[in-house]
Amino acid sequence: MKIVPDTSAVIDGRVSERIESAEESDLTICIPEAVVGELESQANDGRDTGWEGLSELQRLTALDDEGSVTVEYVGRRTKPSEATGAHEGDIDAVIRQVAEEQGATLLTSDVVQSEVAKAKGIPVEYVEPRVRGSGELIIEEFFDDETMSVHLKTGTKPKAKRGSLGDMHYESIREEVTDEATMKEWADDIEDTARTSSEGFLELSEPGMSIVQFRDYRIAVARQPFADGIEITAVRPIAKTSLEEYEFSEELKDRLSERQRGVLISGAPGAGKSTFAQAVAEFLNDSDYAVKTMEKPRDLQVGPEITQYTALDGQMEKTADSLLLVRPDYTIYDEVRKSNDFEVFSDMRLAGVGMVGVVHATRAIDALQRLVGRVELGMIPQVVDTVVYIEAGEVHTVYDVTTQVKVPEGLTAEDLARPVIQVADFETGKPEYEIYTFNRQVVTVPLGEGGEGDSETGVGRLARQEIEREIRSIARGHVDVELQGQNKAIVYVDQDDISYVIGKGGGRISDVEDRLGIDIDVRTHDENPNRGGGSAGGSGGGAGGDGGTVVQPEVTSRHIVVRMDEHVGETVEIRADGEYLFTATVGRGGDIQVSRGSAIAEELEQAIDRKQRITVHPA
């Protein structure tokens, strides 16, 4: 009798079991090369199923050597196009063809393969698939009522984050170091249990990385080569709240119930954003709104009436298209991170769906600024009209976002009127920020006075910087700016630059005044009463006492390099003796590189040559 096993039967060890229980004396096992190719591919990807299947083939070889059975390798290897279509049944079709050509019985633990073989008239033996995993979460013993997450890695002590929202502590929970064999056992059991249990599923399965959702646990399992060792991170929500437990609950309820809105829930990691989002989702559902979620992975703890969607075919755009057919009143988007996420969020909001997005941000205004450049400026209030900032599990700040055509705060010329996004405190109604286009740049300006020791307003600082930029593009030497009220300034330049800056008949400086909407008086440095101690209006001050970090730029053959290792990704201002030079973003390598030969580099080199103090300030 001839038997052709498919991949599922080999992986489950059902072939050697069949041989040991066989009553036939002349049993021949015909192993398709397609099965060998699939197992080899899985093993190369680091999947345990591939290694288990190869171990079964080695057992069959040993049985053949003993004379218990005859083992033959038959058929052809699958083509690359067939291998990539494994989920569509291409490899299974090749295996069925081998069984048909050999006149053999197909052995499988794949119910679909079995039914297709029967439909094609191929003799088939179906055996139940081997149950994998313990059926329970093997690492659940590490959790108690105050444990939010457990962190396990080969060669380290198990650790956990425990405490309450806003008071979490990262601590060791066992003194014994976990060895690789134990980590592999835990990782395999988690993945196998998720595959077989009705209480869990694999959210993501890629070479080196799996994400499991099991009950209310979200578990990330990382392996080599993606990680440098096996690592398991299991997260579980420790709090489930209702909207009534938060500040401004009644006002927020009225706001959310009034009409569909665009809301960003922001905060630092672990601040309680998702917990608040769950409370909002439950309130909306109880208020007779149709609520859905978009999550990758799905870990919001919401009731069964709220359907949780993930990325369809790996793309949230497809999920959004499907949701528009479902017609939800509100969608909770957890989390909005990349530009693509903001675009999907915006498209759904502009289609009339109420949207609640969860965003990482260290300040409430930062959440709104992440839309700048991703959404047309004038459309931002239509996309997001409410920003909620969560800190230590509490509602810290709520902003109301509106738009109006007006002269930005601090400017007076009527011809400067433009669309302005106004960000106001939800409780007091007092405007705190304005966002608008100024001199071809989108700027976010804090309203009111600056911090202690800084009498310059946000608008004043912006105006001074823009004047400096404009005059530096004309003048060849040093430039100082002193603001004289809201719409007037004095510019101090070298004697040789006076006529060049003013231009013939005052035409050049008039063009600058028209662009900025500010009257500018041009004078020489000798007329500057503050020359010894730096320019007035906050642009001078060589002592570096204005909160900046003193740096020593390195001049190489091609670049000027400013090292800022602790500020990767931050936008900062570079100043010389307190005078603004330029704004830059600190790169991934922890430095700012300015190409020599550029105008900015020349100014910076001149400042270095004059031995001015170079300082870095938050932008």
UniProtKB/TrEMBL annotation:
CDD domains: PIN_VapC_VirB11L-ATPase-like. Residues 259-394 form the AAA+ ATPase domain. Residues 523-551 are annotated as: Disordered. Keywords: RNA-binding. Gene3D superfamilies: 5'-nuclease (3.40.50.1010), P-loop containing nucleotide triphosphate hydrolases (3.40.50.300). The keyword GTP-binding does not apply. One of its GO terms (molecular function) is RNA binding. Residues 531-548 have a biased composition (Gly residues). Residues 1-115 form the PIN domain. PROSITE patterns: KH_TYPE_1. SMART domains: AAA, PINc. InterPro entries: AAA+_ATPase, KH_sf_prok-type, Nucleic_acid_metab_PIN/TRAM, P-loop_NTPase, PIN-like_dom_sf, PIN_dom, T2SS/T4SS_dom. PANTHER family: AAA FAMILY ATPASE, MEMBRANE PROTEIN. In the N-terminal section; belongs to the PINc/VapC protein family. NCBIfam families: PRK13764.1. This is ATPase.
